[in-house]
Amino acid sequence: MRNLLSLALAALVLFSCSPSEEELMKAGIEKMDSQAWNEAIGYFDRALEQNPGNATALNAKGVALFQQEKYQEAIPVFTLAVEADSSVYKPWFNRANANLELGNFKEAVSDYNMANGLDPAQTDIYYNRGLALLGMEEYEDAILDFDAALQVNPNQALVYFNKGKAQVGNNDPLGAMESLTNAVNLDGRNAAAYYLLGVTRMSALGEQEKEAGCADLKMALSLGYTEAKSWIEDFCE
């Protein structure tokens, strides 16, 4: 009887020490905060053993994989999160981001559209979808998304830079020059923006903008953008 009682007490102790799904999720989030991605995944996997349909755990696990640049592995995890709860924008947005990183632009745009429909207030969607549309050479739609992002915060150098790229693709060199000028004014270290600005000036306006274009190209080169060197040698010396 005493042995049976001891075994029962031991089982009770073991049971009481087993962390709950909520405790495992909390521990996983804490590991995410300290960027201990694999440890976080371990906690989320344990939570999923208790509840395979935990959409939050699935999304968080996908994010931990994404942060390690394991985009291909992250996508099916985000898909499970979407299947577990399709009413939340986050797994749609995160799966879109993974596809964007992989160059799967069409799939990314489709998921960004879903995320945007579920929560239009999430303005990051506009910029990221703009990047995917730019990758698809859908320049007009990309410009619309970049403009939407700039309406929320007009002080975003990268948004202006990518809007300028879209405008170049859309045969709007004057608009591109304005956007790229905004980009370099906001971020004077963006060598690629200086390069594209210089090339656009000289390609679109020739001698009229040669001096300013050469100055942009020389700035790009000074910042390490070596592709500017051939333009400088051919047109500025």
Automatic annotation (TrEMBL):
Superkingdom classification of source: Bacteria
Alphabetized InterPro entries for the sequence: TPR-like_helical_dom_sf, TPR_rpt, Ycf3/AcsC/BcsC/TPR_MFPF
Chain positions of TPR repeats: 21-54, 89-122, 123-156
Keywords, in A-Z order: Repeat, Signal, TPR repeat
Keyword Chaperone among record annotations: no
Signal sequence segment: 1-22
Keyword Signal found: yes
Pfam families registered for this protein in UniProt: TPR_1, TPR_16, TPR_8
Name of this chain's protein: TPR repeat-containing protein
